[in-house]
Amino acid sequence: MKRIKIFTATLAVMFSAFVAAAQTAQDVADKYTKAAALINDKKDYAAAAPLIEQVIAEGTKVGADAANNVANAKKLLPSLYYSMGLATAKNKDFAAAETNFTKAYNKAREYKDLTWQKRSEEMLANIYIAQAGVFVKSKDYTKAAEIYQKGMNALPSNTTLQMYLAISYVEGGRKDEGFAILKQLAAKGGKTGDSAKAKMEYYENVEANKALTAKNYPKAISLLNETLKNNPKNATAQMMLIQAYNNSKSYDNVISKGPAALAAQTDAKQACDIYYMIGQAYENKNNNAKAIENYKKVTSGNSVSLAKERITELSK
Fold it and tell me: What sign does the CA torsion over 16, 20, 26, 29 have?
């Protein structure tokens, strides 16, 4: 009799568990239906998201009976947080947008939804950029860098945030730190690598131009030669190099480096300015024939009248 009682008790427990599971599965289905109505009828994503979270948590415990609702909820949840992020971003509530897009990104990663992961990452990065942009506008690059760094902590593989962090470092006087990041990006190749290389060349040219303006020709020449070693087609660097050699009266270098500088130019006026400087170099080396030859190639730009004057003078 005791065995029968034990067996009967066990059946009762099993039956109770089955009923509870069935009820829970129905509860899960009801919550999913309620959430769907909130989404479709009212576009109330904020109210729907907690219900969908419950569907996933409770449905996972239920098991097979709720598996379909759980699967659908996992597909839906990242998009809900993404939509909430868009709404808060539209209202310029960047703190709330950051929270929502972070949830969307994390849920998409957890559920291995690459589409929503990518979308959420892009928007989350844009939120950090927008937040930092306020400080960039006021040239507070230290504060901007802090926000970009926060973004990188959340999205460590996001190259856009890495680029902006590097720029903030350089603009804020921390060139070595900025260039360290840019060099890492350059090593990745592709569009990201090309952008990083172009940005480094730009900053090197800015620094070289400052040295040129300050008449620190050795520094300018050193910087420009370093840039051109990596990219001989950099037209701006080639132009400034000829200017630096010309201003420092290094006429042999003007003549020898002139053809490479001309080859890099895509602007006819800048090419004419280089021809004029080559003409000056030959004139200063008393080679009037070659000077006139180059002056005659100055057909546009800032030095046309000066070139004509020199041709007239040297032809006497």
Answer: negative
Q: Which two tokens stand for residue 181?
A: 């990041």
Helix axes 141-154, 159-171, angle to 10 degrees: 160
Task: State the CB neighbour count (10 A cutoff) for residue 245.
Answer: 25
Tens digits of per-residue pLDDT, 149-174?
999 999 999 999 999 999 999 999 99
How many whole angstroms separate alpha carbon 227 and alpha carbon 219? Answer: 13
Could you tell me if 132 and 124 are in contact, meaning their C-beta atoms sit under 8 angstroms apart? no
- Count Cβ atoms below 10 Å from residue 105 Cβ, excluding itself: 26
Backbone angles phi, psi at 189, to 5 degrees: 75, -170
- Neighbouring residues of 308: CB distance < 8 A, sequence distance ≥ 6: 295
For residues 153 and 133, is the Cβ–Cβ distance under 8 A?
no
Cβ–Cβ < 8 Å for 104, 81? yes
Integer Cα distance of 30 and 36 in angstroms: 10
Kindly report the backbone phi and psi dihedral angles of residue 179, in degrees, each rounded to the nearest multiple of 5, phi listed first: -70, -30
DSSP secondary structure code for residue 155 in this structure: S
Going by C-beta distance under 8 Å and a sequence separation of 6 or more, which residues neighbour residue 219?
Answer: 208, 211
Question: Dihedral, CA atoms, 150, 152, 155, 161, nearest 10 degrees?
Answer: 110
How do residues 5-31 score in pLDDT, each as one tens digit?
A: 444 444 344 444 444 444 589 999 999
Say how far apart CA 22 and CA 5 lie, in whole Å. Answer: 26
User: What is the model's pTM?
Assistant: 0.78
| Block residue for tokens 């006026």 | 269
